Amino acid sequence: MKATVVAHRDYVISQIDDRLYGSFIEHLGRAVYTGIYEPDHDTADENGMRKDVIDLVKELKVPVVRYPGGNFVSAYNWEDGIGPKEDRPTRLDLAWHTSDSNQVGIHEFSDWCDSVGTEMMLAVNLGSRGLDEARNFLEYVNHPGGSKWSDMRIANGRKEPFNTKLWCLGNEMDGPWQIGHKTADEYGRLAHETAKAMRAFDSSLELIVCGSSNAHMPTYPEWEATVLEHTYNEVDYISLHMYFENRAGDTANYLAQNVELDNYIATVSGVIDYVKAKKRSKKQVYISFDEWNVWYHSKEQDKALLAGNHGWPHAPALLEDIYNFEDVLQVGLILNTFIRRSDVVRIACIAQLVNVIAPIMTAPNGAAWRQTIFYPYYFASVFGRGTALNLAVNSPTYDAPVADKVPFIDVSGVHDAEGKTVTFFAVNRHLTDSIETEFSLAGFEDAEILDHQVMTHADLRAVNTAENPDNVAPRKGSGASIKGDVVSVTLPPLSYQVIRAKV
Ligand code: AHR
Predict the structure, then answer these.
(1) What is the distance in A from the centroid of ligand 1 to the CA of 313?
(2) Is 320 labeled as catalytic in the residue annotation?
(3) What is the pLDDT of residues 59-101, one digit of tens each?
(4) Is 324's C-beta closer than 6 angstroms to any atom of ligand 1?
(5) Given 2.60.40.1180, 3.40.50.720, 3.40.50.150, 3.90.1310.10, which CATH number is that of 2-9+389-502?
């Protein structure tokens, strides 16, 4: 079987916003406690943050991290997480049926962001609370001083404002599971008024309004239309979420699911344009895909805890999906879709970063290691910055329950003009066959192969563990060749590849 991919220097989709490779940390399970924060750990720094985790996050070059939720934020009192640690209250978290000691709050999280070299993206509680809490939190976080909340921040040890630009107006407000769930009109009004107040404080903020929790919500896509009709001129992004699963064990169908993701983005992009036209607005709203990942491996084991059968534990193991090799392919496919739709998806956050449906796992008092999905996220974040190329792809296809004519070869391409490289991220979805693929670099001069990384595994269910952390890992490919401006590579069945050319 053969496929061809043609990239042309001038045929581009968009400049990629670096924040396409963001992530997310929620006060959920062990994401914070024994994830990023474990004061008794051997590697803990002076703030109680695990340095082994900081090092892994740094490797990923995560540009932005959303915090503190998630469902958690919809009943969160941000004031519980400030001031002397010994005075902070333990609260019951209604979203995940756990308790939270509040030993980590905005100060500790911001210091951690500085340690890993990332920006904060903060969510306000529009579930159990509203506009007033949001404006106070904003003043605490961003006002230099001379007001009630900013002076409190200074008294709590932080003179300079945190200067957070990106703010989420609540989380998944369309979901009946959300504390303080609202109809689209109720939420749209509240989001509009909250955005107005936040902009009155600082008109340069970037505000994100909640879209649908997934494309199967009964209110989708009417939710987006109604919410944007209320908020279009006050917000910059609409947030979407999507999680992928292969409960049926049907690999071909699982690997076709990013076609659904593509449709979801296209539909919401259409709704944005519809509202823009209706409002006769010049302004463009974009998509913040601020929760995405594979999430299904842990769902069964979490049921008892979420039903409240274990009381209100602090930082229990929750949503601890152990990812396998098949999920490497899925994450590669999702990231390819985001790169191809970087014209409308400006921000995206893999959910989440540590322990909770995450690329990084830790053992309390023990090791930290890379899950299988660490690698496609790593490659995209590190080498996927620049301009997304509009590739002409010619690949044999297959039909799956979820979509017809799914190309076996799924590929995205990024031109980094500064670094003088072109990088292709390619997945061969074929279950049994290699595909000889030619990548043409039209309009680029003096191309040479810089690197070729391959991920394959004999066992789709292979995982990484603390004891065997490198079971699924990339290796250097040896079979790529170049003739003129054409790179030829044989892509083995069920493989993920990164092909980099110097141009
Ligand atoms: O990321 C896990 C959860 O998934 C988040 O808390 C919520 O927003 C979504 O439903």
Answers:
(1) 19
(2) no
(3) 999 999 999 999 999 999 999 999 999 999 999 999 999 999 9
(4) no
(5) 2.60.40.1180
